[in-house]
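Weekly puzzle thread! Below is a chain. First person to post its structure in token form gets bragging rights.
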Amino acid sequence: MERLNQALYSAFEQDARVHLIGEDLLDPYGGAFKVSKGLSSAYPERVLTSPVSEAAISGVAGGMALRGLLPVVEIMFGDFSTLIADQVINSLTKFRAMYNGAVDVPVVIRAPMGGRRGYGPTHSQTLEKLFLGVPGLRVLAPNTLSDPGQLLLDAILRDPGPVFFVENKLLYLKEVLGQEALAEYQVEQNTPTDSYAATTRLQIQGAPKPTLTLVAYGYMAELAREAQQRLAFEHEIFCELVAPSQLAPFGADGALDPLLLASIQRTRHLLTIEEGSYSLGWGAEVAARAAQALGPALQAVQRVAAAEAPIPASVPLERANLPGVDDIVAAARKMV
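Winning reply:
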């Protein structure tokens, strides 16, 4: 949370065109998860608290962007992103093409997603897959393996088009892992030429040749990292973990991220991990593209995701509904 808050402050300092719009942003409240805390006091004319209408917020932000501003939208809970679908799908992502490239629409929409906090079925969902196939929309999801603040800052100041920025709620409670914490890992990071969003690959230092690729994003990358250690030390199954920050679009030619593709070519086994519901999700698309790229060389594919049911408010039932470390370990053991 601190990193994202610092990124917003930095964006406001660097460019007077940056504005923040959303519900309950004004101090002392500072937004539902306090990511916007302090901004309305420091920049009272550029932090706009709004009525409870996500469609209106996103529509106004689109108009601001067309007039040359850099609006950042805060959706209180990602579940309410369903209410912005019309503005995003039929307006923000279409204007550049409709006007033959004469306009930019630099709107960043921040959306807290995910469960594990007992908020119930309408405040705990992971819904970014609803937006993954929208042409012209970049979908980003920070994780603990790279700097989420820099990712948000780049999205605000560098991206000429609309960005859907997915913030898992539990990541608000975690700091970015430093090099000391990653000392037991071999770490490789790559930023594609057509993006600013890094992909990170982790392999346990000194481990035998990996036989499985884990790919996960957001908070699930942290759970996958825990599973990677358990698999190595308890079951002698050695994995590479690939954690992309960009979920969509895929590469310029529609290909998988080079780090991910190279990992799958080495291990020939792929396990995708996400918190959204199982069917028709990001993991299914990754698996399909891996199969297209490798053909018969891809020996096994599995997916770990949430149950296809409303998320209960009961914490034990919610825990059973959402994928955890035990589920990742079990799926990996079944594959290898």
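Puzzle host: Confirmed. Bonus trivia for everyone else. The longest strand covers residues 269-277.
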